[in-house]
């Protein structure tokens, strides 16, 4: 697949253009800004699903803040995160799809690890806005990390743990004036293949983020 990388997009994402042209470079995210934002009660007041997005890119600092809010490390001494996870399994990975490619968020390094170059946004959902919104997050649970025998328990815990992350993203978006909607309607087979997931990696839901249109 040919990556469609513009120089402006490279600069925005902090990717050296030459490296991006050859494939996809890792993106070290700037330290998250953890001061400010709306008071919690105002963010809760404004939380909502919005399904109309401008195509404008999200600045790298905002992406850093968003991923940290979603499931970043808030206690570096223990590596624990902004969302809880059963038994601290931390089994949910956030895959980040932009017009340049697909990345996996490494929370401990606060870095985007390249997965595949190319524009996979359209494959993250079944509705047109996913193809043009700047960012689609895909929540992928590694069921191998859940030390329970039954499929039912694995599905139960991974779904709950994902819900906390998605709500953190909702609240961050409400605070920042960003539009977002979490989406269960995903062609999981096609997307898993596009992202090169292992059989034990299960797509739970996706979440679109961007600036609101209108
Ligand atoms: C698990 C889950 C799956 C959802 N799947 C979709 C979806 O596939 N497409 C969509 O447009 N909205 C989806 N939503 C968003 C809901 O439709 C939305 O949260 C609901 O209508 C309430 O609106 P609100 O979020 O603005 O309060 C989903 C929400 C949840 C919690």
Could you walk me through the main structural features you see in this protein, from its secondary elements to its overall organization?
The chain has helices spanning 7-13, 17-22, 40-46, 60-71, 129-132, 151-176, 188-195, and strands at residues 27-28, 73-75, 80-81, 92-97, 101-106, 111-117, 135-142, 179-183, 201-210. It is α+β, with helices and mostly antiparallel strands and 214 residues long. Strands 1-6-5-4-7-9-8 form a seven-stranded antiparallel beta sheet, sandwiched between helices. Strands 2-3 form a two-stranded antiparallel ribbon. The protein is globular and about 45 Å long. The chain contains seven helices and nine strands. Residues 48-49, 51, 181-185, 205 line the site of flavin mononucleotide. The site of flavin mononucleotide (FMN) has 9 residues, from strand 8.
């Amino acid at each position: 697949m040919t990556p469609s990388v513009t120089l402006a997009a490279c600069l925005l994402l902090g990717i050296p253009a030459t490296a991006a042209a050859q494939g996809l470079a890792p993106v070290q995210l700037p330290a998250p800004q953890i001061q400010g934002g709306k008071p919690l009660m105002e963010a809760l007041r404004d939380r909502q699903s919005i399904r109309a997005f401008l195509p404008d890119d999200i600045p790298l600092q905002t992406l850093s803040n968003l991923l940290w809010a979603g499931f970043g490390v808030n206690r570096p001494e223990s590596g624990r995160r902004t969302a809880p996870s059963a038994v601290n399994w931390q089994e949910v990975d956030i895959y980040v799809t932009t017009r340049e490619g697909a990345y996996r968020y490494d929370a401990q390094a606060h870095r985007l690890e390249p997965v595949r170059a190319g524009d996979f946004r359209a494959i993250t959902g079944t509705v047109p806005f996913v193809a043009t919104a700047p960012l689609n997050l895909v929540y992928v649970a590694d069921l191998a990390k859940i030390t329970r025998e039954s499929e039912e328990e694995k599905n139960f815990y991974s779904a709950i743990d994902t819900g906390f992350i998605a709500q953190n993203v909702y609240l961050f978006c409400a605070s920042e004036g960003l539009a977002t909607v979490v989406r269960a309607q995903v062609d999981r087979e096609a997307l898993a293949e596009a992202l090169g997931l292992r059989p034990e990696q299960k797509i739970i839901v996706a979440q679109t983020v961007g600036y609101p249109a209108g």
